[in-house]
Each structure stands twice: as C-alpha cells, then as structure tokens.
Write a structure and sequence with these properties.
Blueprint: H1 3-20, H2 22-44, H3 48-80, H4 83-88, H5 94-124, H6 132-156, H7 163-176, H8 189-194, H9 199-211, H10 221-241, H11 252-271, H12 283-290, E1 295-304, E2 310-319, E3 322-328, E4 339-341, E5 346-349, E6 351-356, H13 373-385, E7 388-393, H14 398-410, E8 417-420, E9 424-426, H15 440-446, E10 447-449, H16 453-465, E11 471-475, E12 478-479, E13 482-483, H17 489-501, E14 506-510, H18 513-522, E15 526-528, H19 536-545, E16 548-550, H20 553-564, H21 571-576, H22 579-584, H23 591-596, H24 599-621, E17 625-626, H25 641-652, H26 658-664, H27 667-672, E18 689-692, E19 706-711, E20 714-716
Parallel strand pairs: 1-4, 1-5, 6-7, 7-8, 9-10, 11-14, 14-15, 15-16, 16-17
Antiparallel strand pairs: 1-2, 2-3, 5-18, 12-13, 18-19, 19-20
Length: 740
C-alpha cells in the first residue's frame, strides 16, 4: 500500500470515527461556538468592534484545543488501546499514520474556524478588513504550525493518565500568555517580551493583521517565518518520535534535538532587537500608528469598497498616496489629523476603463489637429473629471505610455494610472496594421505583424521584456467587401502560450463567434468586444474556463449613431471634448461621412449594434465575467463619459445589477490586471477615490455628478482640471489622421 493511499484511507476512518461520536462533535464544533458566543457577550458586550477584536484570539484558542486535546489525546488513546500495534503489522508506515492524523486534525480545526467566523459575522456583524483568501491563508499557516505540535505531544505522552495533564500544561500557557485569551496590552512589559517565545503569539499576530488591520502582507514577515519554521521542525520530529506501543521507550535524545531546534527559532526572535508585536499595542496606540505625518481622514460618508462591501457611516484613513484603514466612523481622532467631513455623500473606488486608445481622438480622423499632443494631455484630465483613475491602454505608442507611467508614479503628472499593452500582435496587413498602411514604418511600430508561431513568440517576449502589463492579440476578419488577413491559429496559440509562461495577462480582440472560440481554444482568459453572433456554446465555454469579456458596447452604439447622423453634441460633450474632434465627426474629409454615403454600410453597423445588445444580455445571463471598457478613441467614444455610458448599457442592455456593473469597472477589472493597488477601497490600495452626491447603486446618474476625485490621496478640483498645468508629460509622437 502506498503512503498516499494508506494515509487517505486512515484519514477517512479517523473522520468517520470523529463524526460518529456525539462527545467528539460537541468538543469539535459545539464547544468552540459556545466559547466564542460566551466570550463575545461577556468581554465584548455583543458589540461588533470589541467582538471583532477578540475573534483572532478565539480562533487561536480553537486551534490550540484541536491540536493539544483533539489530535494529541486521540493519538494517546489509540496507542493505549493497542490499535497502533495492529497497524504496525500492516504495510502502513509511521509517516502514513502521522499524515492521516494531520489531515484529520486540519479538517476538523478548519471546519470549526469557519463556523466560528460565520456565526461571528451573522450574529455580531464583525468586520473582516482583509480578504477572505488572506484570512484562510493565515489559518492554514497556523494549522501547519500547530497540527505537528499536537502530533509531537501525542507521540511522546505515555498514557491517558497523564495525557490530559500534559495537554492542559501546554494549552493554558499558550492561550493566556500569548494574547489569545487576554490581550497582550493588559500584561506587563516582561510578559509581552516572554510572549515572543510562544508560537500562539504569532498566530494571533497573523489573524489580527488580516481581520483588524486589513492585510496579511504588512509587517507579518517574522510571524509567518516563525510559524512555518515551527511546522517544518515539528513535522520532521513527528517522523522520528512516533511510537507504535506505549511501552516503547521515548527517544529522549531526538526529543532534546527537537526542543533545541525550536529554542533556536524562538530565541533568535526573542533576542533580535526591533521585533515588535502589534498585538501588544493598546487600541489607542494602534490607532496612533495611522496618524503619522501625512495622514488624513475622510469621514461620515457611505463607502462602497468595490468588492461588495458597504459601510453606511465610514472613515477612510489615508497616508501618503495609500489607504491605511477603512472602518466605521469613530467619534474622536487626534486634533492634529486633518479630517474632511463627507457626511451625506458617497465614495467609490476610482473607476478603471479596461479598454482605451489614448492616441485615438474620438473623432472622424479628418485632420491632424485631432492628434496634437495637447489633445492627449487634455483627455487624461477628462478621464479624471469623470472618476476614471486608471485605464488599460491597448495599442498605443509604447514609449509615450511608458513615460506616462513613470511620470504618474513619480507624481510628475496628474493623470490616470496607465496599464499598457504596447503594440498589438496581428497578421501582416491585418487589423489594426491596415489603419497605418499609408506609413509602413508606423504600422511596424504600432503593431507586430507575425505569420508563424516563432514570430508570435518572439513578439510576446520582446513586449514582456519592455514591461507591458498585458499582451493583446487581434482576430479581425474585417467587414463585408473589406476582408482582412487574420492571425493564424498556430501564431495565436504560440502568443497566448508564451504570455502565460511569462506570467503576463493576455487578451484577444475578436469580431465574431468563430474567433472567440479560437481564442478560448488557445487558452486566452480575456476577450475584447462582444461578437454579434455569440453562441450559447461559446458562452458556456467562457463561463467554464473563467474567460472575461470586455463588451465595449458603447463603441458600437456610438458608431451606429454617427452612421445614422444622430447629433453627438450636448452640454457634456461641449464641455469636455475639444471642438476639432467634434467637428471632424461631420467633416466631409472624415471616413465616417464617406461611409454614410453607402446605405449598406450604415445598415451593417446599425444591425451589428442591435445584435451585440442581445448577445451581451445572453452573456450576462450565462454567467460570463464582464469588464467595463469604453474603447475610447473610436468615433463618438469620448474619454471618461463613455465609460459611464458603458456602465449604463451593461445595466440597460445586459441586465446586470448596478452593483455588478460597478464592480466590472473596479475589482473585476483589477483582478484581470492581477493587482490589488486599484479597483478597491482597502488597506494598501492607492487612495484613488470618487466622491458622489448620491448613491450609484440606486441610480447611475450619480456617476455623472462627481463632487471630488482623490488621486493618490490628493483631492482634485474638477472645474480646474482643464485650467491648470497637469504636469510634465507630453507625448513625443503625434498620431496622424487615419486614411481611408
């Protein structure tokens, strides 16, 4: 019998034994819940904030009990009943038995922890400031450390007469001297220092970091390292110290080596100067850490955090360009901390436009005045005025966008945070290279035209070396009567595969269902534009494979409007769009006016828009993850305001809820980019915020009434964005007008 099969079979048997005994169910599940509820009412008064502060300690106590009573005494009992002696005669190894106990103990402890968290959330409405993923990771690290410690105790304890005494001897000091049962800040300084010698102290640190301070990754490196090293040493010792029978002698030399190894770990931390336990800080001291130089607070508003959370009267603590803490409003703060009262207002994360072309004018490409560097700078300010604090630039001038990234990061430029793809990868003469056919050198710069798989791989590697944030490939067959070459399937697959190998997100521009299926087969996890003929089979594949869709329906709507000759001007566009761009939409020199003279082309684009509306609704109903992108830079698709219109269309045409549509321009968009810096209001994220006069989850017209935008914690005056110097960035490359 292999070790894996043996451990699995034995773990199943242990679990069955566990769940068949009422007394075991009581101690594994009922008692932890009763303890949590009792402690919460006695010491926390049933109030969310004090109860929330106590839950990390209660989770730690639950894990300690599972390790030193559940696992340890179970092992002693089995050895005393001579069940291990029978196992010794089978092919089971000591390592297999240990692994089975570890699996069983881990499952029981994690189930109890999840139940405790669910009850604490539902009954006491505690706030968990970090992500659930981080919280689960912290629990797993604790399990990795304490399960083998429980196994170690179970291996060396002689019998059930002294087993409970040993378990209590371990359990109570680890509970009461670590800050789990009683906060460390109640203890004298010497006890706080002694707590550094206990593994449970570091688990409390981790759980508090996630639940109270919002992140597992800030200031917890020592705690993580200590617990991981503890687990490694203890697991190694378990394999050497396991005993099949009670009368087998304990190998004291190996036990001494184990204790010495653990002593080295904890002694090192104890004697290293500068190691500070955050759990030893009083609440007022912990709060004071937020109020260092450069700290400011926004208070009193309703907060929509971008990931589904909502606080009715909240506070956002900011320091520098980052968010330090998000919480319910507190009554007092230090006098020296500036507080901005936003009572009655609503705050959402800065929006992310997941598909823009900063080089595109939004006009009809009628003349070079649309493509002056000043217009690109102007458009960055218009994005900000509409609450768009990040965008994904797909096929713009690489070096200009890289400089914009650097200037925004350094504070030299007031503009949205750019995430860039650089040149798009397409077939020779394919879209969008054909737009630059009048200038082959320009086409070679703005795109990478590839034929073979090797060429596609090379193009991707070069772009990744240039540090783009995302790779974009094109599958575009053109229009009836205007066919275009299409990237080969081999080249597409090579491009997607190489991007995955280099761990860079990849997206594919598609124009029909066949190309969408081709992209999904290649392994792409993101598609740009919604195919007018999107099939149910493709929708099912996208859902199953986790493929996101950026519909850019507003671009199809705008093109249908300009083809019909609808007026594109209103008070908002006149305020924010430069006159040469608006004039070019109806200029005789624009390609739009030339196409409007051909009824079949006009009908083609109008029909496409209606078909895409229906396809979007089916994609939403099919559970496809939607990202909000405007395709700004195309005719009639203007910066900022077009993303708001896209969100409205996701609700009107797609049937999305307003909450879901908002998240498509926040958390969902950030996850595609693999970043937690933007798209959410939470500790560690950039302080990019939009202050609104009314609730956007009730009425999207709120998004058109932006009160203030905070970019990296700096409030922007909307009315002065176009009247003040935006910074040092100026594009060196002028995009020429498109020739038709």
């Amino acid at each position: 019998m292999s070790m894996l099969r043996g451990s699995g079979a034995l773990a199943r048997a242990y679990l069955l034994e566990t769940w068949r005994m009422k007394i075991t169910i009581f101690w594994n599940l009922v008692f932890p819940l009763l303890t949590m509820i009792g402690f919460s009412y006695i010491f926390g008064g049933g109030e969310a904030v004090p109860v929330g502060r106590g839950v990390p300690g209660l989770l730690t106590i639950n894990l300690l009990a599972g390790a030193f009573f559940g696992i340890s005494l179970h092992m002693v009992s089995l050895r005393e009943r001579e069940l291990y002696r029978r196992f010794e005669a089978t092919p089971l190894t000591a390592l297999a038995v240990i692994a089975a106990h570890a699996i069983t103990g881990a499952i029981n402890v994690l189930i109890a922890a999840v139940l405790q968290l669910v009850v604490a959330r539902l009954l006491f409405h505690i706030e968990i400031r970090g992500s659930l993923v981080e919280l689960f990771a912290a629990l797993l690290i604790g399990v990795f450390a304490f399960v083998p410690l429980g196994l170690l105790a179970g291996s060396v304890v002689r019998d059930m007469r002294i087993g409970p005494a040993i378990s209590n001897l371990l359990f109570f000091p680890l509970s009461f001297l670590s800050g789990a049962a009683m906060p460390l800040y109640f203890m004298p300084h010497w006890a706080q220092e002694a707590a550094k010698l206990l593994p449970s102290t570091y688990l409390v640190e981790l759980l508090q970091a996630v639940m109270l301070r919002g992140s597992l990754f800030h200031g917890t490196g020592v705690a993580v390292a200590v617990l991981l090293f503890t687990g490694v040493v203890a697991f190694a010792a378990d394999a050497f110290l396991f005993r099949w029978e009670s009368r087998q002698p304990i190998e004291w030399r190996k036990l001494a080596v184990t204790f010495a190894s653990l002593a080295v770990i904890y002694g090192t931390v104890f004697f290293v100067r500068g190691v500070r336990l955050r759990s030893a800080e009083r609440p007022e001291e912990a709060r004071a850490r937020h109020f260092e130089a450069g700290t400011q607070i926004l208070a009193g508003m309703t907060i929509w955090d971008g990931i589904g959370g909502r606080i009715e009267r909240g506070e956002i603590v900011m320091r520098g360009n980052r968010i330090v803490e998000v919480r319910e409003m507190e009554r007092t703060v230090p006098r020296e901390v500036p507080v901005t009262d936003l009572s009655g207002l609503y705050v959402i994360p800065g929006l992310i436009d997941s598909h823009v072309h900063l080089g595109g004018s939004g006009g009809g490409s009628a003349g070079p005045e649309e493509y002056m560097p000043e217009r690109l700078v102007h458009d960055t300010q218009v994005y900000l005025a509409h609450g768009v604090t990040s965008f994904v630039s797909l096929t713009d001038h690489l070096e200009d966008m890289q400089r914009l990234q650097r200037d925004v990061a350094s504070g030299a430029m007031r503009a949205p945070r750019p995430f860039i793809s650089g040149p798009g990868i397409t077939a020779p003469g394919g879209h969008p290279a054909e737009l630059f056919a009048f200038n082959p050198a320009l086409a070679a710069y703005m795109t990478r035209e590839v034929t073979t798989a090797a060429e596609a791989e090379k193009a991707v590697r070069e772009l990744v070396a240039a540090r783009v944030n995302i790779i974009k490939l094109y599958l575009e067959a053109g229009q009836p009567g205007r066919p275009l070459p299409v990237l080969s399937e081999a080249a597409l697959q090579a491009g997607v595969r190489t991007a995955k190998e280099l761990d860079v997100p990849v997206t594919v521009h598609v124009d029909n269902d066949r190309h969408a299926q081709m992209a999904i087969r290649a392994g792409a996890k993101s598609l740009e534009h919604i195919p007018f003929d999107l099939s149910d089979a493709t929708i099912a594949s996208m859902k199953a494979e986790g493929v996101t869709l950026t519909p850019t329906l507003v671009a199809a709507e705008a093109l249908a409007k300009v083809m019909r000759g609808d007026a594109m001007e209103d008070a908002e566009t006149r305020r924010w769009v430069e006159p040469p761009v608006l004039r070019s939409l109806t200029s005789p020199d624009s390609w739009i006016m030339k196409d409007r003279g051909q009824p079949e082309i006009v009908k083609y684009w109008i029909d496409h828009y209606e078909q895409e509306r229906k396809a979007l609704r089916r994609a939403v109903e099919g559970g496809v993850t939607i990202l909000a992108g405007s395709d700004a830079g195309n005719p009639g698709v203007f910066p900022g305001m077009s993303l708001i219109r896209e969100l409205e269309l996701l609700v009107e045409a797609g049937g999305m809820t307003r909450d879901a549509a908002l998240r498509s321009a926040e958390d969902a968009a950030a996850r595609r980019l693999r970043t937690q810096d933007v798209g959410r209001i939470g500790a560690g994220a950039f302080a990019d915020l939009v202050v609104l006069e009314s609730d956007p989850t009730e009425d999207f017209r709120a998004l058109r009434r932006v009160r203030t935008v905070y970019l990296g914690g700096v409030p922007l005056q909307i009315d002065r964005l176009l009247k003040t110097n935006a910074g040092s960035w100026r594009p060196l490359f002028s995009f020429p007008a498109r020739e038709k």
